[in-house]
């Protein structure tokens, strides 16, 4: 399926006990900016959806809005999720994935 290059999306990830989702989250340097997915582990659940990309903004996890959450709080919410993790993400036209690409 073709993923539009910008907009807000809901992504559902199946979660298995003891298996990482494969997301790395980082906080933006500017306060008030959303958390960012900075890396996705190859072969992980997050990678296999084909929807998530480094540079995507993470707006909510399981309907918990993240605008005032730290990276640590977001990771804690992810760990507490049960079988299905619902992420709300925003892709911007100028998704700055190139900033994070490993060479």
Automatic annotation (TrEMBL):
<dbReference type="Pfam" id="PF00595">
    <property type="entry name" value="PDZ"/>
</dbReference>
<dbReference type="InterPro" id="IPR036034">
    <property type="entry name" value="PDZ_sf"/>
</dbReference>
<dbReference type="GO" id="GO:0005737">
    <property type="term" value="C:cytoplasm"/>
</dbReference>
<dbReference type="GO" id="GO:0098887">
    <property type="term" value="P:neurotransmitter receptor transport, endosome to postsynaptic membrane"/>
</dbReference>
<protein>
    <recommendedName>
        <fullName>PDZ domain-containing protein</fullName>
    </recommendedName>
</protein>
<dbReference type="InterPro" id="IPR043545">
    <property type="entry name" value="GRIP1/2"/>
</dbReference>
<keyword id="KW-0963">Cytoplasm</keyword>
<dbReference type="InterPro" id="IPR001478">
    <property type="entry name" value="PDZ"/>
</dbReference>
<feature type="domain" description="PDZ">
    <location>
        <begin position="10"/>
        <end position="93"/>
    </location>
</feature>
<keyword id="KW-0677">Repeat</keyword>
